[in-house]
Amino acid sequence: MDPAPFKACLEAILDRKMVKRGRIAATKVLVKWQKLPAERATWEFYYDLLKQFPNF
User: Which residue range or ranges hold the Chromo domain (predicted)?
Assistant: First the structure.
């Protein structure tokens, strides 16, 4: 039996930075995921996260 797939749950935003996305500026946020250590935090585009987690 295969293990259950990992369901990502956003725990906290640790940091943010501005980057270029094509020809425009975009915000990236450093995401701390639930059940993962802070060392496994990842940079994600802010507006992409809003689509996935509208109630955060």
Answer: 11-55
Whether the predicted model's global pTM rises above the 0.70 cut: yes
Sign of torsion, CA 34 41 46 15? positive
What order do you get walking across the sheet with 10-21 strand by strand? 10-21, 24-33, 42-45
pLDDT 10s digit of each residue in the chain, 56 long? Answer: 556 566 779 999 999 999 999 999 999 999 999 999 999 999 999 999 999 998 87
| SS3 state of residue 50 | helix
